[in-house]
Task: inverse folding
């Protein structure tokens, strides 16, 4: 049975382009032209993934994303945001609300299909081998799919959780942006390494006092350090 993709956009030509390419790659599609219809169809169809435009009539894509992620019946459905906006804040807000990825218009249909396949493939992959990964006050519990700092749970998106778990599994080893795109996002070719930087920046904001466990290796990527720098420890 073909996986079903819900395409949400108020531009008919964009919907036609996406449905044609998705069907050509073996997916079944359903469509919605505004936010209200998107919510109704998502709840009725329970698609495998949603391609969601941010600029929609009646309800914005961000509002739709928020509603879907709050509903236990639809919270598991991965979302790729589609937007003409180039502002970083829109992407960060969408990712914070639980979206799995974003594509900025104008886009390549092949790139969009690749991202759809990658997000779906990520959902099937197993997490880290170790049930619990700890560094200082930071704990990643894979069995419970939660992250604790000093015993207090912090909310992460599925992608943020996988990114943090992977970095902690490979602590001390530098992970290049292209490697992270492949291992976390499932991309077989480098598309846009800014995706990694956006997620790391947002992850650091959520980690608070533990943010400095993620070290930037300039021009290469990121790694988890075994302990916080002295200046950070003294300030804690």
Result:
């Amino acid at each position: 049975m073909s996986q079903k993709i819900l395409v949400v956009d108020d531009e008919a030509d964009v919907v036609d382009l996406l449905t044609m390419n998705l069907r050509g790659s073996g997916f079944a599609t359903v469509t919605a032209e505004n936010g209200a219809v998107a919510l109704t169809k998502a709840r009725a169809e329970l698609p495998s993934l949603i391609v969601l435009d941010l600029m929609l009539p009646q309800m914005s894509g961000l509002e739709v994303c928020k509603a879907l992620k709050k509903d236990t019946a639809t919270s598991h459905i991965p979302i790729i945001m589609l937007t003409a906006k180039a502002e970083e804040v829109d992407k960060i807000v969408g990712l914070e609300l639980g979206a799995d990825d974003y594509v900025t218009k104008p886009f390549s249909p092949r790139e969009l299909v690749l991202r759809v396949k990658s997000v779906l493939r990520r959902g099937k992959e197993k997490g880290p081998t170790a049930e619990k990964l700890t560094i200082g006050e930071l704990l990643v519990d894979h069995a419970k799919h939660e992250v604790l700092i000093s015993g207090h749970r912090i909310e992460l998106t599925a992608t943020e959780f996988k990114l943090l778990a992977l970095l902690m599994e490979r602590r001390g080893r530098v992970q290049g942006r292209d490697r992270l795109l492949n291992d976390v996002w499932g991309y077989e070719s480098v598309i846009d390494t800014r995706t990694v930087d956006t997620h790391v920046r947002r992850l650091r904001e959520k980690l608070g006092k533990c943010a400095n466990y993620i070290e930037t290796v300039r021009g290469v990527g990121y790694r988890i350090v075994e302990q916080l720098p002295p200046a950070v420890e003294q300030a804690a």
Notes: The two ends are 54 Å apart (CA to CA). Residues 232-236 have pLDDT under 50 and may be disordered.
